Automatic annotation (TrEMBL):
It comes from the Bacteria. CDD domains: INT_RitA_C_like. Keywords: DNA recombination, DNA-binding. Residues 111-194 form the Core-binding (CB) domain. It comes from Robertmurraya beringensis. PROSITE patterns: CB, TYR_RECOMBINASE. InterPro entries: CB, DNA_brk_join_enz, Integrase-like_cat_sf, Integrase_catalytic, Integrase_recombinase_N, Tyrosine_recombinase_XerCD. This is Site-specific integrase. Residues 217-404 form the Tyr recombinase domain.
Length: 413
C-alpha cells in the first residue's frame, strides 16, 4: 500500500482481512493478542508506524530471534511469531495477506544468458509443457548455466565441446537416471541455441550419450487387502476425511494422477452422463473417466457435507483458511502417509508407498485380470504402451503361466 497508516489501524485492517478469509476464531484471537504486544512495544519506543526494523526489534527483544527469515531456516518454535510479523509487513506493502513466507529468492539468471534462457522458457510454454515439467527442466538447466558462469563464459557462442565435456564430469556422481535427465535437458537447450542463432555450431551433437540399457524400475504395488484396510481407516465423519477418502478413491480406482486431481474443477464433473472429463496436465490429452457408484457417493458426501464454503472452481481445496486450491508444489503425499500409519500398515525399507503407487496397483490388478496393455495404457493416460510395459514385472502370476516346463520339452526331443 502506498500510504502508511498508523500501526493500530494497520492491525485492525489485518484482523478484518483474516475474518474475511474465514480464518478460525481462535486463530484470529491469537493474532489479536500478539498484535497488542506489538502495539505496546511500538508505543514504548514512540513509533507510530510499522516497519521491518520495528518487527525485527520486537522479535529480538521478545523471543531472542535474530535469524534472517528470508534467507535462513526458521526455527520451529519461532514460525508463529515470525509469520504474524510478516503478515503485518506484507499487508502494509501489498494490501493482501500472503499465505506462505518466501524463504529463498528465486533463481537469478546470469545477465549474459538471460535473453536466451527467457526465450527458451517461452518456447517451452508455446509447446504447452506442463508447469511442473518446465520447472524441473529449467532447474536441471540452471546447473549448466551456473557452471558456465563460474567458468567466466560471457556468451553462448563461447561454449565449446571441451566445456561441455568438463561439465559432464561434474555430474558423474549422480544417479544414472538423473544423469540421463540432465543430459537430455542440456541437449535440447543447446539445439535451441543453434536453431535460434545464439551459437554457430550445433553443440547438442557434442553432448555424450549414456552407453547403458534402459532398465525401468519395478513399480511398487499395494496388497489389495492393505488398500481396503487403508481406506477403511479414514474417518469419513469429519470434513477432512470426506475429502481424503474421495481423493484416494479417484487414484486407487481410476488411476488419476495427483496433478490432475489438484486441477480437477467442479465443471469437470458431469453428473448427467456420470463421467469426469479432464485434460491431463502431463499429456494434454482429453480423458474421460466413469463416476463409479462408490466414487460418486464419496464426491457427493464431500461436496455437500465436507467442502468449505469457497468461490474456488476446484473440487478439492485446503481445509484451513484461506480455502483455496492446493499449492503448486503440493504432492498430497501427506494424505496417504497419514492413513497408512493410522491403519498400522508397515512399509518395507526402500519401497515407495506414495499416491503414485496406487496407480501402479490399479495397473497390476488390471493386468492380472487379463486386460490388454493398450487398454491399461489408455486408462493410465500413457502416451503409448511402452510406459505400461513395466507393469509386466509385477504380474508374477501371469509370468508363471508363460514358464516352460522342461519335462515337456524333453519328451519331444
Amino acid at each position: 500500500m502506498e500510504n502508511r497508516i498508523i500501526i493500530e489501524e494497520l492491525v485492525a485492517n489485518v484482523l478484518s482481512e483474516l475474518e474475511r478469509l474465514n480464518y478460525a476464531y481462535n486463530t484470529i484471537c491469537g493474532y489479536r493478542a500478539f498484535y497488542k504486544r506489538v502495539i505496546s512495544f511500538a508505543n514504548a519506543r514512540d513509533e507510530f508506524y510499522f516497519s521491518e526494523a520495528l518487527g525485527r526489534a520486537f522479535l529480538k527483544e521478545t523471543y531472542n530471534c535474530t535469524v534472517n527469515y528470508y534467507q535462513e531456516a526458521i526455527p520451529k518454535e519461532l514460525k508463529g511469531p515470525i509469520r504474524r510479523i510478516r503478515v503485518l509487513g506484507d499487508y502494509q506493502l501489498h494490501g493482501v495477506i500472503i499465505r506462505r513466507i518466501v524463504k529463498k529468492p528465486g533463481y537469478v539468471k546470469p545477465p549474459q544468458f538471460e535473453s536466451e534462457l527467457t526465450g527458451y522458457e517461452k518456447e517451452c510454454e508455446n509447446n504447452e509443457y506442463s508447469k511442473r515439467g518446465l520447472r524441473t527442466r529449467m532447474q536441471r538447466l540452471f546447473f549448466f548455466i551456473d557452471y558456465l558462469d563460474s567458468r567466466d563464459v560471457q556468451k553462448s557462442n563461447d561454449i565449446t565441446a571441451n566445456i561441455i565435456s568438463d561439465y559432464v564430469k561434474t555430474i558423474y556422481k549422480y544417479h544414472e537416471k538423473s544423469i540421463a535427465s540432465i543430459l537430455t535437458a542440456l541437449r535440447v537447450y543447446l539445439r535451441f541455441l543453434y536453431f535460434n542463432q545464439y551459437t554457430d555450431e550445433d553443440l547438442s551433437l557434442k553432448v555424450p550419450k549414456q552407453s547403458k540399457y534402459y532398465y525401468p524400475p519395478v513399480p511398487s504395488v499395494w496388497n489389495k487387502d492393505d488398500v481396503i484396510r487403508m481406506l477403511n481407516s479414514i474417518d469419513r465423519g469429519n470434513p477432512t476425511g470426506k475429502r481424503d477418502y474421495a481423493i484416494l478413491l479417484l487414484v486407487a480406482k481410476l488411476g488419476i494422477r495427483v496433478g490432475d486431481i489438484k486441477s480437477l474443477k467442479l465443471s469437470d464433473l458431469n453428473w448427467q452422463s456420470k463421467n469426469i472429463e479432464i485434460r491431463q496436465n502431463k499429456t494434454k490429452n482429453i480423458v474421460s473417466y466413469p463416476i463409479l457408484n462408490d466414487i460418486g457417493w464419496a464426491l457427493i458426501d464431500y461436496l455437500k457435507n465436507g467442502r468449505p464454503i469457497s468461490n474456488s472452481p476446484f473440487v478439492f481445496i485446503r481445509m484451513n483458511a484461506p480455502f483455496e486450491a492446493f499449492g503448486r508444489d503440493a504432492n498430497l503425499h501427506n494424505i496417504i502417509t497419514k492413513y497408512t500409519r493410522l491403519s498400522g500398515i508397515t512399509v518395507p525399507d526402500g519401497k515407495r508407498q506414495g499416491l503414485h503407487s496406487l496407480r501402479h496397483t490399479l495397473a497390476s490388478t488390471l493386468l492380472e485380470q487379463g486386460t490388454p496393455l493398450p487398454v491399461i495404457s489408455e486408462i493410465l493416460g500413457h502416451f503409448n504402451s511402452k510406459s505400461t510395459n513395466v507393469y509386466l514385472h509385477t504380474g508374477m502370476d501371469g509370468l508363471r503361466k508363460c514358464a516352460i516346463d522342461p519335462e515337456e520339452v524333453l519328451k519331444n526331443v
